[in-house]
Request: fold
Amino acid sequence: MSVLAQQLLLGLLIGGLYGLAAAGLSLVFGVMRVLNVAHGELIMLGGYGAFWLAALFGVDPFASLVLVIPGSLLLGALLYWGLFGFVVRAHEETRIKNSLLIGFGLALALHALAVRLWTADERSIPTSYGGAVLTVGELSIPLVRLATLTLALVLIGALQLLLSRWRWGKAIRATAEDWQAALLTGIDIRRAYLLAFALGTALAGAPAPSSPSRTPSARRSGSSGRSRR
Reply:
């Protein structure tokens, strides 16, 4: 029974990380009806950002989120302006088809670029607390995973607060509900789309640095590739 409880606990802790990764993807699709299949590669870039900040400047992987999340937000805005901005002008069914094509192309390009620059070897960020464990009865709780779950809950809660209290957060929700009605009320739906896509990309940058023991490699980010040793 203790083994089952331990596995359920670990599943809950890891599920927080997956939930945070999925939050950005669902936000983008829910608002824009755009399938960004390059979301995994964006998570990979967040992981590499945390890795290089730790390797070059000794920044703690959790502290690196202060730079990685704003950087991912800016990257999301650039990707929207450069690639996805024209997709939202089409009919909803056409949006999905076009976004799939653009997303696959972007995923392949980012994957190939990562393999070229950093190889496909898995990277890790060694920390002093990487192996720390909190023991509660017969259960062992990895502190890194616990901090990751806490971070996921905080960020998802902050997103919910942002969408419910912020003026443009309400505009994003209105656009997701009915973009035509939102347009008639004077909402700039293009800006709402831009903010939604940028926020979704920022959330994609959060999961990888929040797991200090392992950073997603190009080989594991969602596209298949041959490891370069």
